[in-house]
């Protein structure tokens, strides 16, 4: 009698489907199959569709290590973001993912949690297995970025660097318009609720706000540095009130929302007692009570642009430079007249 408890013979693992299998199935050369899958647009559309359909039917999965052997390329791009929970990152990743797929790249996203040491470590660890880097809101200095650029091409988003191509949001016109609007509403003292000390955009924003306020005879004070979080924005209320400012320009929407929430909990009126503004126009910024005045940037487009510049760099077509995108001031209910001017004609 057979042993009913006898072990089932182990299954032989299924053999990995290769480019050669797909080529044989479709009736094309292996090089044609490879071009269709890894370099879209290099073969006729009809042939490319037949090859991709066969790859899907056979269960083909690209092997980055194998792809790298003949070319030195893995077809992989690393996107490093400061905070994956920040809605700004969502938009950048979405745009980058869309563009990467269009060019046949795999996008790997890694978070460094606002820590420049972790950012550098992640980049150097990933360097052997990726073709290029996109550094979004990098906290690294120019020297550290140059060291990474010596290993792989680098494109930065909202961080200008001489060793990388940079995709930037031009906040200056919108910030100047915001300061002009606040001056027209009777605000004489402004508070800039600053972001991280290592943030390149933080320094640029404060420089513009300070200059624009001075040109209009307004006083501007800087409160920070701060972590760019809702908790930090909320915790800053007492310090903000101590400055005597009647309007606050926060480093980002998340901090502004934290401050707005703390003001409401303290039974302060926004904008009756304090006007509050942010930057980024993140999802939900118009759901607050009152809706948050903010500055919008085309973040998804910027993420896509970063991948296009990576592709150009890998093709030898792009030197370090800048690509600048306009921003837009969105006036909403969180800005109003300075308290002492209310009711005046």
Automatic annotation (TrEMBL):
Keyword Transcription regulation tagged: yes
All residue ranges annotated as the HTH lacI-type domain in the record: 17-71
A GO molecular-function descriptor: DNA-binding transcription factor activity
Region (Disordered): 317-345
Keywords: DNA-binding, Transcription, Transcription regulation
SUPFAM superfamilies: lambda repressor-like DNA-binding domains, Periplasmic binding protein-like I
Keyword Transcription regulation part of the UniProt annotation: yes
Protein name according to UniProt: HTH lacI-type domain-containing protein
